[in-house]
Amino acid sequence: MRLVLASASPARRATLSAAGITPIVRVSTVDEDALLASLPGGRALSGGTTTPADEVGALAAAKCSDVCEALRRGNTELPAGEPVLVVGCDSMLEIGGQMLGKPHTPEVARERIAAMRRTTATLWTGHSAAILAPLPSQGDARSSHGEERRIERQVTRSASTLVHFGDISDAEIEAYVATGEPLHVAGSFTVDGLGGPFIEGVTGDYHSVVGISLPLLRAMAGELGVFWPDLWDAPRP
To answer: Rounded to the nearest 10 degrees, how much is the dihedral formed by the CA atoms of 181, 218, 158, 103?
Structure first.
């Protein structure tokens, strides 16, 4: 079975590849800020009734559903006559009573990283997975655009991991921000890239900090009736 990754994250794609799965990548068009603003009860940690798990779960579910909808009316990338597993993810860092996404600017990244040094923060990652299956009895209904499909079932789960930051000097922060790496990642850091040496430890699933929890995704795939080794590129013995 092929896996469709509803994310442009190279770290998530690399994590799946290292686990023997080459995903089909389709990036969602979800407006993250608008979705978070629309959550019932208000934002987590800002007087609202949503939780950090709710926030990342809602984002992941929206991205998964968005890509499913884009693929539903036919796509020649997908294997004909076979279902695919579509996976959406989103990560945010909880620190100092705030939920932080991507900083986007050097100024924001610099401020956030300075606040993170010598602290422990919680990295929340939402995961949503759906089975997108061909419509039954299409006969000759397939076109050059592929066959029509439907979502058979979708599940959404969230995971949290503690990240322990080291004592990062001002000069190191300036150098790290100047690389551009922290500008477009949740919480302004990476554990698997240039930011790795500034992180002293992780309590929980390392892969979740990278952006996709393989143990959680395996459990979710099982809920959907997917045998995890069937997602591997290499045939099973």
So the answer is: 10
Annotated active-site residue in 33, 54, 66, 90: 90
Q: What is the CATH number for 202?
A: 3.90.950.10
Tell me, yes or no, whether 224 lies in a domain.
yes
Distance from the Cα of residue 14 to its chain's centroid: 12
How many domains is the chain built from?
1
- Residue 237 included in any domain: no
Owning domain of residue 94: 3-231
Active site residue 90: yes
What's the rounded Cα separation, in Å, for the pair 78 and 172? Answer: 45
Sorting pLDDT into bands at 50, 70 and 90, what band is 47? confident
How far is Cα 205 from Cα 183, in angstroms, rounded to an integer? 23
The pTM (predicted TM-score) of the whole model is: 0.90
Res 7 pLDDT > 70: yes
**Cα→Cα distances 30→71, 75, 88, 156, Å:** 15, 20, 11, 16
Task: Tell me the two tokens of residue 182.
Answer: 């922290």
Residue type, 158: S
